[in-house]
Amino acid sequence: MTAYHWIALALGALAEAVTLLRVILRPHRDPASRLAWLVVVLVIPVLAIPAYILWGDTRLIRRRRLHGQSVEAALPRPPVDPTGSAMVAATPWQPPFAFATSVNGLAVTAGNAATLAADNRTAVAEMVADIHRACESVHVCFYIWLDDESGVALAEALARAARRGVAVRVLADALGSRRFVRSPHWQAMREAGVDAREALPVGNLLWTLIRGRVDLRNHRKALVIDNAVAWCGSQNAADPEFRIKPRFAPWVDAMTRWEGPVARHWQFLFAADWMAEGGDDLSAWIVAPLPPPRGDVVAIGIGTGPTVAYGAMTTCFAALIHAARRSLVVTTPYFVPGEQVLSALVAAARRGVAVTLILPRRNDSRFVGAASRSSYAALLEAGVAIHEYCPGLLHAKTMVADDSAGIVGSANLDRRSFELNYENTILFADATLARAVAARQKEWLADCVAITPEMAARTPLAKRLWRNVLAMMSPLL
């Protein structure tokens, strides 16, 4: 061997050693993920080392990460009404609410009113109507914004609001909405006076990949009107036909409309995102006097992401699952839950909770669809009822416990939502709203196929091998 070969081998060994050291020392990595990376780096270092550099760490560009953390830390929190915490203090929901307060430093709110939109198109029509009624401000954040009927309707409503003097601020994820931000509709909003910005802009792709992960995105979906009305759920600014992936249509979502103090939580989360992107200071909106009570719903907003405490969203879901006593119904399009949530679901079923899991039969991510089915056998054995929704992609992210409390928002039950993306979710306690969401879940169940233990057992060996391999790989992502 020549000297060049020895130098190459030495450099390769050094790169492998440094990567292995980083895998072992990286904070906030669960043991399964750490072990998976160790094995891959040892077995196929030529591929694994660059893969780890690109995808192995949950890392934003350092400057952006520090700026985002400093912005949220410096923002004032909305005024506190102790009524909310008192109302859940003696209920099974006290632990999940107590943890939720620690995520962003927001307090439990009472006096909220909430409604569940009938479907995707109705949600857009009602959001447009709220924008038309706006007097002072409209703040919008979407992960995906398409130039279809729904996307254009929202853009035109925002432009009209800006022209009549309403302060309109818009955030659209730079990757998820990349076509829209380059469309004439985006430019028309700006010309009308809308302050429209890209969230997490990519810039030079190669330089971004070197400094951080390009796939850490702002996955939030939120609309705040006049500091008192807020929308939260799973729906993007797009038609249910979702023309960029039409073969999985219709996309079925759940959007909720809120009036009351919890809307201020959405204002806080929007302000953190907005100011991190160089927008003007919105602190005064957050600390303005709270609106009068509008209903009886107890709720708290939860905003998670790579600049927030590690594992916050995972623990929020797990805490609500552990609090369930009689029933638990969960819907999510992407189910790769990790050990904490999977163990919580199995434990709930084993202690007698009627646990129902509703997932799409056709998933736009073949990887996730296959990996999620690898856990079916263990769930079914524990007594979890699994149903697959047939008409389209069930994109709603909902959880209802004991027909009394629940979660609605943008976060899926997968690592991308747990660790990588910015998400916004509402945890609520109210029997009326819980029953409304539960009724919608029952409608979806009517269009499902029940997965039985016998069906899972009949899965061909090759398919089981493929699913289990993908599930083993999921901690790498």
Provide the descriptors you would attach to this structure in a database record:
477 residues; alpha/beta; Endonuclease, Chain A; 15-stranded mixed beta sheet; 20 helices; 17 strands; 46% helix
Question: How would you sum up this structure, described in words?
Answer:
- With 477 residues, the protein is of the alpha/beta class.
- It has 3 domains: 3-56; 62-91 and 112-297, Endonuclease Chain A (Endonuclease, Chain A, 2-Layer Sandwich), CATH 3.30.870; 312-476, Endonuclease, Chain A, CATH 3.30.870.
- It contains 20 helices and 17 strands.
- It has helices at 3-25, 31-43, 45-56, 62-74, 83-88, 94-104, 120-133, 149-163, 184-192, 205-211, 263-276, 283-287, 312-323, 338-350, 366-373, 376-382, 415-420, 431-445, 453-457, 461-473, and strands spanning 109-116, 137-142, 167-173, 195-199, 222-225, 229-233, 251-252, 255-259, 297-304, 327-331, 354-360, 385-389, 393-394, 398-401, 405-409, 423-429, 448-451.
- The strands form 2 sheets. Strands 4-3-2-5-6-8-1-9-16-15-14-10-11-12-17 form a 15-stranded mixed beta sheet, with helices on both faces.
- Helix 2 packs antiparallel against helix 3 (45-56).
